[in-house]
Write a sequence for this structure.
């Protein structure tokens, strides 16, 4: 049998997604919800905490719980889709802001991620991704100069993958991905709209060409309420 707090959570989610509880409106108070669902205040608090964790509400001290925008972008974990391709497909208003583009010798951490030496060069690209007027992704890209001899700010503002495939004729083949959740850094808080959020979802990408050459390492740092990380899996009998 489903736990009472999960039932309450699911009921409120349905009302938010159906528009019965409007974005930016206040939920009823804990006392009113307790009476409505005929349960304890502790159960209501569990349901509200889960709603907050899942990005449906923002709890504001002294005010209560506010419904926040909850329609998430499906982010295909197993695919290799550029930000431009993803947001264009979803019909989202988007913008890329380049905060850094430089050709540098890699620090030790990047050397280990890309299997490089201190004598090699990498393009270091930091970009903020804006969706519907909010800064929700910080992409930190490192590309081996051996494979990407030139890179411009204009390319980085548009689509690096379009440039690599169409202009440089590189065949991007596959990626190894790692997903972790961490507390935001001071850089995350400076560049992203993270008021009220205590975690960021980080996807680390190791991207390879069709000859299995590792040419790119990326840390894509996401605000947790905007994305639903999805995959398709088929059961294989062994």
């Amino acid at each position: 049998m489903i736990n009472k707090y999960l039932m309450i959570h699911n009921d409120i989610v349905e009302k938010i997604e159906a528009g019965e509880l409007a974005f930016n409106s206040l939920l009823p108070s804990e006392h009113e919800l307790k009476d409505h669902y005929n349960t304890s205040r502790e159960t209501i608090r569990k349901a509200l905490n889960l709603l907050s964790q899942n990005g449906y509400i923002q709890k504001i001290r002294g005010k209560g719980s506010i419904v926040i925008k909850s329609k998430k972008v499906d982010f295909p974990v197993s695919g290799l889709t550029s930000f431009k391709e993803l947001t264009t497909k979803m019909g989202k208003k988007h913008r890329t802001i380049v905060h850094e583009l430089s050709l540098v010798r890699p620090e030790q951490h990047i050397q280990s991620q890309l299997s490089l030496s201190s004598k090699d060069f990498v393009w270091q690209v930091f970009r903020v991704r804006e969706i519907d007027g909010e800064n929700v992704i910080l992409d930190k890209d490192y590309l081996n100069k051996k494979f990407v001899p030139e890179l411009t700010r204009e390319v980085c503002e548009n689509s690096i993958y379009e440039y690599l495939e169409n202009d440089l004729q590189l065949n991007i083949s596959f990626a190894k991905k790692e997903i972790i959740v961490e507390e935001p850094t001071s850089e995350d808080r400076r560049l992203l709209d993270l008021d009220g959020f205590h975690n960021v979802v980080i996807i680390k990408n190791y991207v390879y060409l069709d000859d299995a050459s590792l040419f790119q390492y990326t840390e894509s740092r996401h605000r947790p309420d905007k994305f639903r990380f999805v995959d398709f899996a088929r059961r294989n009998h062994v």
Remarks:
- The CA atoms of residues 95 and 129 lie 6 Å apart.
- Strands lie at 57-60, 64-67, 73-76, 94-104, 122-131, 134-144, 172-182, 200-209, 214-222, 227-230.
- The chain has two domains: 4-67, 73-230.
- The two ends are 33 Å apart (CA to CA).
